[in-house]
Amino acid sequence: MSVFSTVFVILLYALMLPYIGLMLMVLIGAYRAQKRPISRERPSVSVIIPAHNEQDKLEATLTSLSKQQYRGRLEFVIVNDRSIDATPDIIQRFVEQDSRFRLVTITEPSRRFAPKVNAVNTGIQNSSGDIIIASDADCQYPARWVASMVSHFEPDVAMVVGYVESTRAGGAKNWVERFESTDWFSLMLTSRSLTHFGWKFASSANNQAYRRSSFEAIGGFGASGRAPSGDEDLLTQRMGKLPGMRVVFASAEDAKVLTRPVPNLPALLKQRRRWVSRYHHTLHYHPAFMASIGVFGFSSVFLVLGIILTAFIPELDPWVYGLWGVKLAIEMYGMSLGLAQMGRRDLMGVTTFVWALLHPFFIATVVIWSFLKPGAWYAGARSYRRRFLKRQVREFGRKVRHAIVGY
């Protein structure tokens, strides 16, 4: 092979082999049995729902919450975060109809936290439950969702990472929804499997629960509250560091939360671009987590580049297509196993194959787009990063002055 081809193959395999290793971990994790929770305690629960201009989605969400069946004390704290539509009126109507609902209003943005994190934090500070369950304003819940999530809280469990899907089994209406549903499932399968290995790295803000005592033990959201995903991945990673405590995954049918599917492919790409953009702000993330994200993203970029280059450099064919074939085989087997285990056989077969075939192109597009035009986070992540760096500079200057002049 030419020097260029040799160097390219080395780079491609340096990225793809760790990714294949991660996929094998997910596959092995799917075989690891997780004990069905046995806790029968009924602690008090506060469900926190942040809402910013959600008039088109909120009523269905609150109606779904109102049907919750839980024998312990339960409150729904709905946080109206500076909405300028009918959001507060919808919340107030439920407050008047059901004593479990409470309205909390935010009128000014926080200088300390990103808006989404501030809304969740404000809800927590205005709630009283021993268990906090956080979700979003565009979700639907099984009647025993709260009870199922709470049942996972054995004495050494700090946090429960819940399952999220964009369509129910057999509910996808078109190929975009089928692709999105399969992609959502791949994220859930990865989270579940890595949790079985003790890797507490990621969760979805649509479905997560944690002890109030654990939240207080880590100092709340802390400095990471200014990050775009401070209420999701970063919170999970900090909870996972609590000594003697565990983070577990809830995949039972009655613990699953349904979020709204996106309307079309451009919207799906835009959503995923926004998700990837948050990982441009690497502060506070676990190094192994960021390494995994980097391998995942750039291996897709290099694989797609390799597929394109084979049209001009035929000597790359066996190296690129052989590797792609291995990737496809492992993904197909792992996804089929997970889909069978978690009741989504409707996504098996052609749907899974099409997803696996298009997945590297999908991820490469999102990654490249996230660098060309980072997704807009209403959180002000840029100022978060700038302030953090300013603090580091000031701290460095203080240490230099202390070393030179002694104060």
Give an overview of the whole structure.
The chain is α/β, with parallel strands linked by helices and 407 residues long. The protein has 13 helices and ten strands. It has helices at 3-31, 58-66, 87-97, 115-125, 145-150, 175-196, 212-217, 233-239, 265-277, 287-309, 317-341, 350-372, 381-405, and strands at residues 45-51, 74-81, 101-106, 131-134, 139-140, 157-162, 164-165, 208-211, 246-250, 257-259. The strands form two sheets. It has a seven-stranded mixed sheet with strand order 3-2-1-4-8-6-9, sandwiched between helices. The chain is globular and about 70 Å long. The N and C termini lie far apart (62 Å).
How widely separated are the two ends?
A: 62 Å
Q: Mean pLDDT score, rounded? A: 88
Largest sheet: 7 strands, mixed
Q: What does the radius of gyration come to?
A: 22 Å
The coarse overall form would be: globular
Number of strands: 10
Which structural class fits the helix and strand makeup? alpha/beta
| Major sheet strand order | 3-2-1-4-8-6-9
* Alpha plus pi helix count: 13
Q: Uncertain regions: pLDDT < 50 for 5+ in a row?
A: 377-384
Helical fraction: 40-55%
User: What percentage of amino acids are in beta strands?
Assistant: 5-15%
Instruction: Give the H and E element order.
Output: HEHEHEHEEHEEHEHHEEHHHHH
